[in-house]
Amino acid sequence: MIIDSYGQHVFTEENLCELYMTKPDLKLKEVLLDKTVDFNPELNLTHIPNIIQYELSNLSVAEFDKKNRDEWFIPEEYKTFDIAKWLLDQCTHEEEMQRVGKELLLYQKRDMFILLQYMKYLVDTMRANNIVWGIGRGSSVSSFVLFLIGIHRINSLYYDLDIEEFLK
Fold first, then answer.
1. Cα gap 122→21, rounded to integer Å
2. Residue 87 pLDDT > 70, yes or no?
3. Is this structure's pTM higher than 0.90?
4. Are strands 9-11 and 2-3 parallel, antiparallel or unpaired?
5. Which of 10, 63, 75, 133 is the most buried (most CB within 10 A)?
């Protein structure tokens, strides 16, 4: 197995056979298989439902990142969701609106609105399925926007936490 320059684990046929022999009960949703290897379809790898022939890419890491940023697996309603309007609608007074506006500019500058849309989808999905998550940790608690979305429960305005701690 190799780890490509994007951090993905790419297996050879030999790796898959070894994995199957040493851990026959292991269930994997998908495996990236080195495309340069001739894969024997006769191998009984029914415990891996999705084997993807993978060719190491010549994309730069920045190009790879951009490509994946554009392909988030979220429902269309969240991809087109106006997160900025929704966040501003959550504000109850001027100080909150100022902070949200400042943070939105920083997220926009970093082309991270899709991340905010995904976070909204994630929180909505966890709430709908009664999944419990933590109250918050690390520098993310300095983001008031993430507090409004529900990622954490630390009000950064109340504790006077600087957004720059998160978006360095």
1. 36
2. yes
3. no
4. antiparallel
5. 10
